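Protein Record: Sequence and Backbone Structure Tokens
======================================================
Scope: a single protein chain, as residues and as a discrete description of its fold.
Tokens: labelled as protein backbone structure tokens, with as many entries as the chain has residues.
Position: the record begins directly beneath this header, with no further notes in between.
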Amino acid sequence: MMQRLDMRLICLLLPLVIEGCAVDPIVRREPGTYEVFGKKYKVMQDSLGYREIGIASWYGQKFHGNLTANGEIYDMNSISAAHKTLPLPTFVKVTNLENGKSMTLRVNDRGPFYEDRIIDLSLAAAKQLDFEQKGTTAVVVEAIDEMNYPERASEENNGSYYLQTGAFSEKHRALLFLQAIKALISQHGYEFNIRLLESKIDDGSLHKVWIGPIYGELHGYALKDIIEEAGMGKPVKIMVD
């Protein structure tokens, strides 16, 4: 009887033991390197000048809600990507060579761990580049130096600017719009200060929503594209002395 009971306990506990022994396939060896399925990868020191042509794929439901390599929660309905060796995070421009569509996105995860693929996009990004049905496509991936190293851009441009995304006579409408803009650009992996400014006019006040300060033209172009594609107006560039 005791032997049977012990065996039952073992059978009940074995799945828990096995599950508890499961490990992340990414094994970190020393700073700047990691290992997956026995293969060692070395992370680039920087992304300056990076450009590569290859195959892109996408990952979705199986990984939805899991932690990414830099500790964020993967959301297949947001814009993001995984790369084997680019520093995290890195902003890149990805162009689908089969249809000419391109987009800017943020790399925040590791993968894809297939020899013939260079980047893994979220489902939302794959939809924007129009290859979610096919599964893979030929792409050009280019690091956007101006966005990844804004301090260099600020030194070169010697100045900054703002984007005015809306102006409202009613403050509560301006606040709602500010929150919507903040959520939109956050979904695309951007982090910028968004502020509400009040200007006095003849018949009251004007409440303006500004993004910034912004260094470098590429940041501004990317933000404009995101906001306009979402149908939230056309941002206006504001220079401040």
User: Anything to note?
Assistant: The longest helix spans residues 2-20. The helical segments are 2-20, 123-128, 145-148, 150-157, 171-187, 217-229. The domain at 150-239 is CATH 3.30.70.1070 (Alpha-Beta Plaits). Residues 1-24, 26-30 have pLDDT under 50 and may be disordered.
